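Check the record.
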Amino acid sequence: MATMDFELGQVLKAYRKGLISDELFEQQIKELNGGPGKYTYAGKRHATEREMIMHLLDEFRCGENFAAEYLNRWIEVSDQACVKGGLRVVQQRENYHAQLLEARLRELGGSPQCTVPAERREKELAFYSSATKDVEKLGSIMTRLKDQDIAAVLKPLTDAIDQIQEDQQSKELLRSLIDDEMSSGKWLMEAHKVLNGAAAA
């Protein structure tokens, strides 16, 4: 949405300075408000709601699938019983989410396209399957949670979900998954605090 607001501001500036005609101004405003690019997800504009949903489902599926994979590696080498127990729940959620997202993507006529870049896959799988202590692995996840604000991390998803009007099935599926993501994030933050407190003591 920020990208669209910026573009609208640019069109208004150009019009006020007399750089574009009334006709061109009207055409560009129509395009920004209801034409191609009306729907936005993760900085990419889509002409239709369905196109945006397909993009969202595929990218979300890709991320959840990879998270399930590296969390599974982490569980195998975890050095804290309390962390291992919680990680099992989070890993199962991520795995199930990936399955639900792929199923919905296929129901809409799509197929999985998104893949995690090889360099990132190699680096993260090596880190989470290493003997690095759980507190350090949790710390790595905390740096991705933007000052422990889960809502900020999920905002690109929630912003896209808010735009969905027609496909209520996808909308409610996604809203339910966001609730799960909030629960997982909350547990990860609490586990990090507990382990940090134990390390300090």
